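[Q] Does anyone have a clean structure-token version of this?
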Amino acid sequence: MIEMKAKIERAIYEASMALDNNNWAGWLSLCDEEFNYKITAFSPEINKDMIYFEHNKGELANLLDMLPKHNTDHSPLFRHTSVYTVDVSESGTEARATSSVVVFQNMLDGVNSHLDSGESRLFLVGRYHDTFTITDGVVKFVTRETRLENRRLDKGSHYPI
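[A] Here you go.
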């Protein structure tokens, strides 16, 4: 059980590193064919959850293939992820994990005139709520909900967080 929890933690950290490096294929390779990804936040103004983004693996692959064609802010995003909990089912075939995520954006020269060149800024704060399938010791993401504390997203937010 401890070994499986370590594999799940490693998958979460590998996903963060792949996303930091815009290694979309590497990130998607960690995901099951049934993978579903969404970004949500709670709005106290309307007292409801909001869904900013929701795609399955095929839809994500199409979106990620199109990213190089988008006019976008290329200031890199860096995730600081801390795994809080990992719970493996008794059968050992499924798991759930909750992690904290803080994303920083390193501003490139001339991207935003109101920010100094090279400045790092806090982009967002939230939690990852992940579910996994475990087959023959191989861990794959089945779902990821990125639950934000922020309710306003800036440029670059069409990238998976």
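[Q] Thanks! Anything notable?
[A] The mean pLDDT is 89.
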